What does this fold into?
Amino acid sequence: MSNVRNVPGRRGEGRLRSAEWFERRDLDGFLHRSWLKSTGVTDDAFRGRPVIGICNSWSELVNCNVHLRGLAESVKRGVFQAGGFPVEFPVLSLGESLMKPTTMLYRNLMAMDVEESIRSYPLDGVVLLTGCDKTNPASIMGAASADIPAIVVTGGPMLNGRWRGVEIGSCSDCWHYHEELRAGRITEDEWVEIENSMSRSNGHCMTMGTASTMACVTEALGLTLPGGAAIPAVDSRRRHLAEAAGSRIVELVERDLKPSDILTRDAFENAIRVLHAISGSTNAIIHLIAYAGRVGVDLPLQLFDELCASTPWLVDLKPAGRFLMEDFFYAGGVPAVMAQIEDLLHLDAITVSGATVAENIAGAEIVNREVIRARSEPLDEGGALVVLRGNLCPDGAVLKTSAADPALLQHEGRAIVFENIHDLAERVDDPTLDCDASSVMVLRNAGPVGGPGMPEWGHLPIPAKLLKQGVTDLVRISDARMSGTSYGAVILHIAPESAVGGPLALVEDGDLIRLDVTGRQLDVVVDEAELAERRSRWTPPAPSDDRGYRHLHVSSVLQANEGCDLDFLRGRTNVVEDAVTYL
It folds into this structure.
């Protein structure tokens, strides 16, 4: 890095952004250097070297991320080895299991934290340490807007859970066994045993839930080193990956390779292909659209459906399949999947490895063809996620077909409407609830505004009376999201949502709902005159909050088909000009 050490003057070609802070010969430069030296470092530790931020979403409130402090030490080792100066800093951490009403409400707040931390400090590059569902997309969104060289190190999945000789996964088996408990087929003591057997190491959910999906999608985008998505959290190879990322970020700074160089339309199409091939979480659709909004790439919701038909489903993981992430890693991980569909990928897309997609996946092989299917023997010829349209969702809705009962993909049934999550909780197990196996459960006021934050309420519990009759799936519709670990014929992300006057607000008990997955249609069979009359009587719900960030969110959030970002956060800032303007 000798070409960037101690270069005088304003930033130009070959000059580090951090030099605006540390190479000045005025009082500000004196103070910047002096205060940094108070931490015990000398001039040689940081002057003229690329300053690498380690953006850490570690928190003891977030079980998925509690081990990231250790990974940060490995990153630092790599940064030092490559001639950089690492500085670790905390950002807001989001944990789906404890944070209410939902981490999705705070994804954009964390993204702001990441962007503003990068924007305001003397950082030349950043390593993003992520784990639980929304810490990954929030960090990427913030870094994409700040647009300095960045690389992601995900925290990795837990080890497989085991109960009485059966491998169990969070939280797909939570839902499964909870239904068994409600139906009276397992005991409370067995339920407690399962609780104690499921989550047995650091790391995020080991099913193909949202955290695992986003780790895989991040690798497909080219934002993390190849092969890194599926390494178990407690495997020493994850520390090896973190060290390599620390070394690699220094090289990215030298090349000035930024997120905007990597997050091209081709990269997004690669990520969508991989999303379908792994039967990933529906939540990835929202996050990818939000990323695209940050870097100015047009990524319409319909593209996800267009790429579905020609992308085979290859990965047999829960909730849609049988296996777990530990098995996926041993079977070959994301490189093996991408190698199977290389004819569908943009192989010349550049990645943070410095190599192209083609170079990253060259020689990748499937080790276990039960976990990762060969292209010639897919689980399904088409992908796993579809986009629906119709008079219930004029701006779209999504359905994970791979996790649904195929018999329900063409269906008509009478609506049972729940006004909100509290109404659902109060009535779903009432033995007098008027429902049968053909019913369509409808939940509203659970979207980006109505939730607020679009909570994971979409996996509506099947009424207890139906569970006891042996019913295992129902068509369920909402403007909510669902956990990527969930399953069923669950239609999500209805846009526009009911709280802003979307058609879901007009559905009444007993209305006929028609689902046609083949035709990509979702409709309420009610004539337009009746719907217009209902709309004339509709009034919006009272605001959920009138203060702080929640108020800002509700007043500025975009709908699901636009990525649920805040409208004023789309696009990028100019961190180079910031440094010149304010220093």
About this structure: The mean pLDDT is 94. The two ends are 24 Å apart (CA to CA). Residues 1-49 form one domain. Residues 43 and 238 are 32 Å apart (CA to CA).
